[in-house]
Design goal:
Elements lengths: L2 H20 L31 H13 L1 H8 L2 H15 L7 H32 L5 H19 L2 H10 L13 H40 L7 H15 L2 H11 L4
């Protein structure tokens, strides 16, 4: 590096130091205007220790919203409905019809429909008393948890509950109230997966029979180069429409929750 280049670098360093030293310090900064503050969060001790501060309520609300998809999948009937509808689409062999957006949208609305009595119970026993300052945050959470636990217990098999209790190394519970929610949720998910695959297996059988019949006919006619799916798909769609398949499947899904 030449001497002129070194001088240029040192000049830039000295100029940067002078700019930093000439900047006003904290003492020179203008005091904030209290009247101009649009939002102020006070983390001091409140008058009522049992009541959560506004800042903590906002933090908890944002946390719940970020976990809402996971909560929806884990503690509602969404898992069973989404899996059954996806297996139905694969059994028909219509590739991406209906699209994923329609499958998920239908599963969501059916979930809201099935879970409406549970949400009404939560609103009546927990949310309204909490908004009316009749319950503390802890009491409201316990009251909201009770209807959801009751729904999950109805759909959970005793075998799955025993498995999770054994894995968690908990003492044998005397009643369902002693089973913690951390044990109930995975048990509920396992039961939902098993039920969904059982329903999906029953849906696969008629469409599988149609595929086998079409493949046998094409093979006997010597049309081995023609894919059987291209021939069987119109027949499967026709039979599905004639039997009003969506009515039967949606009705069976909703009735399977014994609400």
């Amino acid at each position: 590096m030449t001497s002129s280049g070194k001088k240029r670098i040192w000049a830039l360093i000295i100029l940067g130091v002078m700019i930093v030293l000439s900047a006003p310090g904290p003492a020179a900064a203008a005091p904030p205007d209290p009247a101009g503050n649009l939002l102020s969060i006070d983390m001091g001790k409140g008058e009522n220790p049992g009541k959560v501060s506004v800042a903590l309520q906002i933090f908890l609300l944002l946390t719940v919203l970020s976990l809402a998809p996971s909560i929806l999948i884990m503690v509602t009937c969404f898992t069973r409905i989404a899996i059954v509808l996806s297996l139905l689409r694969q059994a028909i062999g219509s590739n991406q019809l209906p699209p994923n957006q329609i499958i998920i949208g239908l599963a969501l609305f059916l979930t809201f429909f099935v879970m409406t009595p549970v949400w009404q119970k939560v609103n009546q026993d927990a949310l309204k008393p909490y908004l009316d300052n009749k319950l503390t945050t802890t009491e409201a959470l316990k009251s909201a948890e009770a209807p959801i636990r009751a729904f999950m217990f109805k759909q959970t098999r005793e075998k799955d509950l025993s498995l999770m209790v054994e894995i968690a190394k908990l003492p044998r519970p005397k009643n369902i109230e002693e089973i913690p929610t951390t044990v109930l949720i995975p048990s509920f998910i396992i039961s939902e997966l098993k039920t969904a695959f059982q329903i999906g297996f029953m849906l696969y059988i008629p469409f599988l029979i149609i595929d086998m019949v079409v493949a046998s006919v094409l093979l006997s006619m010597g049309m081995m180069m023609l894919p059987p799916v291209m021939v069987s798909l119109p027949f499967k769609l026709m039979i599905f429409v004639l039997t009003d398949g969506w009515y039967l499947i949606v009705g069976s899904l909703v009735k399977s929750f014994n609400m």
